[in-house]
Amino acid sequence: MKAFDWAEFLRHHPILATLDAKHAEWLLSEDVSTERRYEPGAAIVREGEEDDSVFLIGSGTAEAVLQDERGQTIQLSLMLPGETFGEMAFFEGMPRSATVRARDACVVLQLKGRELR
């Protein structure tokens, strides 16, 4: 059972709000999605991973980062509640191009790519 109110979240999401009730229920089923909680600094996805999941940020923030050739961390983007990430890996089937980690405590819904196809 998911603790975050994802049904309410979907009703207000700019893209997912267009889903009818049947498809929203399917998207939130345990066969398709999993709610995960991350502590600050925890990796949600890692650069180079091969996974076609798409992620929705319910609360908290996440950041996409890369390591440069000197080992310095470069922040590529900051993602806020309501944003999604992982779409390019889903559509292109390529390994993750950056690491995404929780910037602060966050709740994320992982949509399993294989179930979405």
Give the helix/strand layout.
Layout: H1 6-12, H2 21-27, E1 33-38, E2 43-45, E3 54-59, E4 62-67, E5 73-79, E6 84-85, H3 87-92, E7 99-102, E8 106-111, H4 113-116
Describe this structure in words.
- By secondary structure, this protein is α+β, with helices and mostly antiparallel strands.
- Helices cover 21% and strands 34% of the residues.
- It is built from 4 helices and 8 strands; from the N terminus they run H-H-E-E-E-E-E-E-H-E-E-H.
- The strands form 2 sheets. The protein has a 4-stranded antiparallel beta sheet. Strands 2-7-4-5 form a 4-stranded antiparallel beta sheet, with no helix packed on it.
- Strand 4 and strand 5 form a beta hairpin.
- The two termini are 23 Å apart.
Supply the helix-strand structural class. Answer: alpha+beta
Give helix % range: 10-25%
- Taking pLDDT < 50 over at least 5 consecutive residues as the criterion, the unreliable ranges are none
Treating each run of at least 4 consecutive H or I residues as one helix, how many helices?
Answer: 4
Query: Number of DSSP strands?
Result: 8
Average of per-residue pLDDT values: 86
Main β sheet profile: 4 strands, antiparallel
* Strand arrangement in the largest pleated sheet: 1-8-3-6
